[in-house]
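Problem statement: downstream parser choked on a complex file, so we are re-checking the raw output for the NAP run. The parser issue turned out to be on our end (a line-ending mismatch), but while we're here, posting the original submission so the record is complete.
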Amino acid sequence: MKAWRVHDFGEPKDRFVLDEVPEPTPAALAGMSMGLGGWIPAGPGLEPFDDWVIMRMEMAALALPDVTMCRGTYPVPVVRPYVSGQEGVGIVEDAVPSRRHLLGKRVVACTIQPWGSLAPVAVGVSMIFEVPEGMSSEQAAGYLIASHTAHHAAIRRGGVASGETVVALGAAGGLGSAIVQLCVAQGARVIAVVGGAEKAAFCRGLGAEVVDHTEGDYVAAVRQLVGGGGVDVVMDPVQGEMGAVSDGLLVPGGRRVLCGHAGGLIPHDPDFYLDNHSLVGVDLGGYPRETMRQFHLETQDVLTRLMAEGRYRPTVERRVAFDEVPAALEDLGARRTIGRVVVEIPQHGGI
Ligand SMILES: NC(=O)c1ccc[n+]([C@@H]2O[C@H](COP(=O)([O-])OP(=O)(O)OC[C@H]3O[C@@H](n4cnc5c(N)ncnc54)[C@H](OP(=O)(O)O)[C@@H]3O)[C@@H](O)[C@H]2O)c1
């Protein structure tokens, strides 16, 4: 099969190669375990990983990790060569015994390197759900990671409550736009921080007030909006300089929820504790397996209900063809995308 594979380090437009690669099979997966950076050979102290399905892909999503893994700036090293892509939707063709009830079903799932979703056949792991009733392939492809992370970050870890004021950084991005919607649904006042008029209009459509950081000091603009006081929560998938200055916006006792690093990782202000602020960490994968499974089920219930009530939607704003992947990733890395970008996966004869 033809898959988008990365052998080297650099920009996706230079390093993504449309390679002929073997389809993943149960035999290939049998001796494999799961490490932080993806699938690795099992061995002493490393049990074979036994929660997977083999999926014939319909659509996949693009995300910043496709860019940062390729550049080598992803926080965890990834063994090369690998097929990129962290999630998507497809039909289950094979599965471990505990997932065999999904054979032939359309599912959304995470995909881990080297068997990523930018291929006609991928390996879905851990977060595997049947596509909810009425959800299109496009929406399904862009649903899983952003939506589940947003719920885990804003509600479970961040504790955002009705009546609180929340600043959402990177608010027009894949994760940010999911966070905005869930905070609005929770009854919070949400101030979305974005770069540019198009992103501003998009976030207003999700129910947020907006500050455009390209027009000047965003911290001062937020302060003005809230009448000179502070905010209860900063939802921060950006970090970098933009995240660092957001500390000044928190009321005493406020929380800054770190759920990504689009602007890069920088050290945190050691004075944080003097203001009784909480720095809250978020990693969807950072729990024992049973705990994670429980969280995923709880989150899926909440999101399914909100979608049925029309209060949440996967923000898929762009659909590209398989051969457009490197160009679309260039846009993503340069902050030119809004919401989620999904990719059609061709099954016969490539592009
Ligand atoms: N913790 C987890 O489990 C988890 C799960 C999913 C994603 N993530 C992480 O969350 C972060 C955001 O992911 P995403 O999918 O929402 O990305 P995205 O769609 O590219 O959105 C990121 C947003 O961040 C803003 N930004 C500010 N500085 C930036 C910079 N230097 N480079 C790029 N963007 C910058 C951009 O908004 P403006 O241009 O409008 O400022 C952009 O819209 C990533 O670091 C990703 O790895 C974490």
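For whoever reads this later: The pocket of NAP is lined by residues 63-65, 145, 149, 170, 172-176, 194-195, 199, 237-238, 240, 242, 259-263, 282-284, 332, 335, 337 (CB under 6 Å).
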